[in-house]
Design goal:
32% of the residues lie in helices and 24% in strands. It has 9 helices and 17 strands. A 9-stranded mixed sheet has the order 16-15-14-13-7-12-11-8-17. The protein has a 6-stranded mixed sheet with strand order 2-3-1-4-5-6, sandwiched between helices. The chain has a two-stranded antiparallel sheet with strand order 9-10. A hairpin with a 2-residue loop joins strand 13 and strand 14. The protein starts with a strand and ends in a 9-residue tail after the last strand.
Length: 386
């Protein structure tokens, strides 16, 4: 057995998600554990080089975490042939150009979603990776959450019988920035900067539905800009013209109906910031980020509608929790390990740029559905069509 390194250019890690999930809890955690194990028993250790628009902040992060390499700009980082992977967690508007430039420099690419603002851009990226024989990956972190992994176990075991419907609730109140600072960057709420919850969240729901409940076949979506005025990070008022809520219904393969609400203008009265309820002929389940509860056909209660009397049933107490049968590691880290293994040893991998394009496709169709006030079919995408 031998140990080697793999150079990874990391762009956009000064932001909250890029720093916490990708740098600290993924790449540095993998480095500290001695790398990723390969099928032949060898290990490969990530060797990151950081780059970003704020060179001082990038350098400070590197020093804080014992990272020896920092590039002055992306072009310099891409020039080193020993760095074989380029990763981006920056703003959506910059992503397509960054990924394209990295692939033209011969790099395998891994990126946050959405991979672009338009389907045309996304397919161009997928074409480029395919033409150059490069490996690509798009973050699909929700599939690695303990709650949804438990949901997958239930589905694979036949617990649900025939799945009938999926109901999803995602979101929380993002402060307007006047009384309290917002928890999200202001560009999220400006169309010109690539903001909007439809572009941000429908790509997530695409891979969740495709991989857990059935391929998405049609969409009907209504968006809204509920809070039209916000205050940015510097205390300046600005017009928030991007959608901050989306209410979508999907038709899935096999006749499954999915309804998912996404909102940055909702106050939470549920178990988690994201919850999914799946109802089937034999049983139902409700999953959050970590926990999952079930109710089988044989122990489903028999409520009776009576609006004249206070409800006596404690419905939330009638569900059984799925136990933790294993230790669940950070989902971002798990997917990073899989992608590194894919690049280094050509192990099987599904979540490439074409899968990322499917998410952009659904967001684009969701926006069109909202504008035209109608259902839209979701045509299939394939590498042959690319």
């Amino acid at each position: 057995m031998s140990t080697s390194t793999i150079g990874i250019v990391m762009h956009g890690v000064t932001g909250r998600m890029g720093y916490n999930q990708h740098l600290v809890r993924s790449i540095l955690a993998i480095r500290d554990q001695g790398g990723v194990s390969l099928p032949n028993g060898d290990r490969i250790v990530p060797d990151p080089i950081l780059v970003g628009r704020n060179a001082e902040k990038v350098r400070e992060l590197a020093n804080r975490h014992g990272i020896s390499r920092v590039a002055k700009d992306v072009e310099t980082a891409l020039a080193n042939p020993d760095d074989t992977i380029f990763f981006d967690a920056g703003s959506t508007q910059m992503r397509a150009e960054l990924l394209s430039g990295a692939m033209k420099a011969g790099k395998h690419v891994y990126a946050e979603k959405p991979i672009s603002e338009t389907l045309e851009q996304a397919l161009t990226l997928a074409r480029l990776a395919h033409a150059r024989g490069l490996k690509s990956g798009v973050v699909q972190d929700k599939l690695y959450l303990p709650g949804l992994r438990k949901m997958r176990l239930l589905k694979d075991s036949g617990f649900f019988g025939r799945v009938l419907s999926v109901r999803g609730e995602f979101g929380y109140w993002v402060f307007e920035g006047d009384w309290q600072a917002a928890q999200r960057p202001s560009w999220n709420y400006r169309k010109a900067d690539g903001g909007g919850i439809i572009l941000d969240m429908l790509p997530h729901w695409r891979y969740v539905m495709d991989n857990l409940f059935g391929e998405v076949k049609a969409v009907s979506c209504v968006g809204a800009t509920h809070i039209p005025n916000r205050v940015d990070e510097k205390g300046r008022a600005y017009k928030a013209d991007a959608d901050d809520a989306a209410y979508a219904t999907f038709q899935l393969e096999g006749g499954v109906i999915a309804q998912i609400n996404s909102s940055w203008t909702v106050r939470v009265k549920r178990d988690d910031l994201a919850t999914f309820q799946v109802d089937g002929t034999l049983g139902s389940a409700v999953a959050g980020l970590t926990r999952c509860y079930t109710q089988h056909r044989v122990n489903t209660p028999r409520p009776v509608w009576n609006p004249d009397q206070p409800q006596t049933m404690k419905f939330e107490q009638q569900w059984e929790e799925v136990p933790d049968s294993q230790t669940y590691e950070n989902g971002f880290k798990l997917q990073w390990e899989e992608f590194i293994r894919h690049v280094a040893a050509d192990t099987p991998w599904k979540f490439n740029l074409l899968e990322g394009a499917k998410g952009v496709q659904l967001a684009e169709l969701g926006m069109k559905s909202w504008t035209e006030r109608r259902w839209l079919d979701v045509p299939p995408l394939s590498i042959e069509a690319v």
